[in-house]
Amino acid sequence: MESNGKTEDETVVAPVKEDAPANLDSKIVKQLGFYFSDTNLPYDKFLQNEIKNDNGWVKISVLLTFKRLASISNDPKVIASAVKNATDSILEVDETGEKIRRTPDSVVPVADQEFLNELIERSVYCKGFPKTATMDELLEFASTFGDQVITKVTPRRLKTKEFKGTLYFTFNTKEQAENFLKQESIKYNDVELERMWEKDFLEQKKKEYEDKQAKKDQKIKAETEKYFKKGYLLKADNLDESVTVDSIKNVCLELDWQVAFVKIVSEEKVAWIRLKPVKLAKDLLEEISDKKEDLSINLSLPEEDVEQSVLNEMTKEMKGIINMKDRMKREKNKNKGGKRYNKRRNDDNGSSAKRIKTNGN
Predict the structure, then answer these.
(1) Is 327 helix (H, G, I), strand (E, B) or coil?
(2) Coiled coil: which residue ranges (predicted)?
(3) Residue 245 lies in a domain
(4) Most buried pick, 52, 60, 81, 323, via CB within 10 A?
(5) What are phi and psi of 187, to 5 degrees?
(6) Each residue of 136-188: pLDDT tens digit?
(7) CA atoms of 95 and 176, how far apart (whole Å)
(8) 154/168 Cα distance (integer angstroms)
(9) What's the rounded Cα separation, in Å, for the pair 2 and 302?
(10) Is 266 among the domain residues?
(11) Directed axis angle between helix 21-35 and helix 76-85, to 10°?
(12) Distance between CA 177 and CA 149 in Å, rounded?
């Protein structure tokens, strides 16, 4: 994708080396066909906005801002002629020869989850490409499996836009994808490609992420337990703007509860009350079960996972405060050290002057 949102990376138009008009026309039609295809158009926000403005028509001058099409031909007349003369295209040209659209009888699929799942069902993950491979080289490789067999090439990229060396091939049919996977060996520049269904790869990555997240959560949980014990957190909800930290503390004080900390989350109209580890929160609520309706705030116990999440956040805030105090302390000591050094240096200079004066007399 280009930075302006126009599709440039996910196409399977293979480079045509011949300069003959017929081959040029074929290349133009294939490239345009991809832009307006079922695999691209539903997800192309730029083109989606364009086709809404003029009954599906898009100016050729606009399409020529797509670098890949412009690299094939930047002549609007040549592009219009190629589409007009195509016999098996889903595209048409308007009477002026200045606009192109997908034919009205070719309905654009809705980009919903069902459609995405269908694409994934006929897509294959491949690994083993050099990270230096260009899009044109990947497209040319895809074209070696037949015309319109691989209908979409999706390179996987780093945040820096660099190619990872892996990609997804979306096939025209699931049967073609199965045949691709069944082949004993497929190489790119003598390097064997690792292949698997995209859905299986996504499941694998999902599990890796969940395992990694679980380890991270366990580490955070262990860290939280150093600061706070579970079972001493209360939730106050449906708060109005008049409720303050002090008013919540006063309610707890009237109930003879020992409060360590109160945090109000205004946007959620919720407050979290962390009690001192004297008596469990559930026991305190049971003791006032007959008085709860009379309280000015609604108190309840949080779900276990919610409690853990809140305590994790409090731990993060606590560590932030501790780290800030440590920095301030170090800075203060550093300044003190500087003053002592300057005073000592001044004293030494004064002593030297006195010695010189004495020697001079």
Answers:
(1) helix
(2) 199-226
(3) yes
(4) 60
(5) -120, 150
(6) 899 999 999 998 899 999 999 999 999 999 999 999 999 999 999 999 999 99
(7) 38
(8) 5
(9) 46
(10) yes
(11) 90
(12) 9
Residue 349 lies in a domain: no
The answer to whether residues 310 and 272 touch, using CB atoms and an 8 Å cutoff, is yes
Q: Are residues 53 and 81 in the same domain?
A: yes
Q: Please return the burial class of 211, using the count of CB atoms within 10 Å of its CB with bins 0-12, 13-18 and 19+.
A: exposed
Q: pTM above the 0.85 mark?
A: no
| Spatial distance between the Cα atoms of 47 and 102, rounded to a whole number of angstroms | 11
Q: φ, ψ for residue 170 (rounded to 5)?
A: -100, 125
Q: Minimal CA–CA distance to 170: which of 46, 37, 67?
A: 37
Per the structure, how many domains does the chain have?
3
End-to-end CA gap in the chain: 86
Q: What is the DSSP letter of 130?
A: -
Q: 80 with 126, same domain?
A: no
Which residue range(s) make up the domain with 127? 113-203
Alpha helices in 183-303 (DSSP H): 198-227, 245-254, 281-287
Residue 128 CB coordination number (10 Å): 16
Structure-block tokens of residue 224: 């939280």
